[in-house]
Design goal:
Number of helices: 8
Number of strands: 10
Shape: globular
Strand order of the largest sheet: 1-2-3-4-5-6-9
Strand content: 15-25%
Mean pLDDT: 96
Helix content: 25-40%
Distance between the termini: 11 Å
Low-confidence stretches: none
Structural class: alpha/beta
Largest sheet: 7 strands, parallel, barrel
Order of helices and strands: EHEHEHEHHEHEHEEEHE
Length: 249
């Protein structure tokens, strides 16, 4: 039976400020990416998220970011490869340590926001991330945008990879995500998202905003946990996949 991983970003609450319905979303996805405190999350939120994920049996990943709490990690930054290596090493080591403290294993790493997008197009940034991940644990899976430098550099480093596609984001003809600054960056209609996801999984293509079919590899599908309708969105996508014989795992 064909299967696909559904992943979501979680643990992005901070102090008294709450974001997302993480526990409900964990019932619908198969892996989660936990904020490491640089763009969101704090020590208590991180520990609680890991414990909840263990209880629900979902795969746990670290979600490192640029140090950008105010900008939610979505602002571009110019850090050297050595600095990127250090911030990724620090954040992934933190989540890995918390997982192990509670008897769990860290499964993967998925960079967040601007770090993810810059690594997709910049080989040096991608290499710094891959080297940091391998330094911590060569068995970790690195999630990255399908067709990106992040996937290529992870493979060069000998890491396992998961090529990621997005249910709720539109694509450019070069395979990159449409910048969030544009009004057509997000897909808010669940039926349109379902059509896009099924097309990416079954046909290995996605139609860009310019209307061009773009080749794509779908090994894991991201659903953003910070969306106000993330749970409803994930429920519809999961049910649609199961209805056509694609398991979520």
């Amino acid at each position: 039976m064909q299967s696909i991983d559904l992943n979501a970003d979680m643990g992005e609450s901070f102090g008294a400020w709450q974001m997302g319905r993480d526990a409900e979303l964990m019932d619908l996805v198969s892996s989660i990416n936990v904020a490491c405190g640089f763009h969101a999350g704090d020590a208590t939120v991180l520990r609680q998220t890991v414990e909840t994920a263990i209880g629900k049996g979902v795969k746990i990943g670290a979600h490192p970011s640029f140090p950008d709490l105010q900008g939610f990690g979505r602002r571009e930054m110019k850090l050297s490869p050595a600095e990127i290596f250090d911030i990724v090493l620090f954040q992934v080591a933190t989540v890995k340590g918390i997982c192990e403290a509670f008897g769990a294993r860290l499964n993967h790493v998925k960079p967040h926001g601007a770090l993810y997008n810059q690594a997709a197009k910049d080989r040096e940034i991608a290499r710094a991330i891959a080297e940091a991940v391998k330094k911590i644990d060569g068995n970790l899976v690195l999630y990255g945008l399908s067709g990106s430098f992040l996937i290529a550099e992870a493979e060069s480093a000998g890491l396992r990879t998961a090529s990621e596609v997005f249910a709720d984001r539109t694509y450019q003809t070069d395979g990159s995500l449409t910048p969030r600054t544009r009004p057509d960056a997000l897909i808010t209609d669940a039926d349109a998202a379902i059509r896009q996801v099924i097309g990416m999984i079954t046909n290995s293509t996605v139609r860009s905003v310019e209307g061009v079919p773009v080749p794509i590899c779908a090994e894991t599908v991201c659903i953003h946990g910070d969306s106000p309708h993330a749970v409803e969105f994930a429920t519809k996508i999961r049910n649609a996949l199961i209805a056509i014989g694609i398991a979520v795992r």
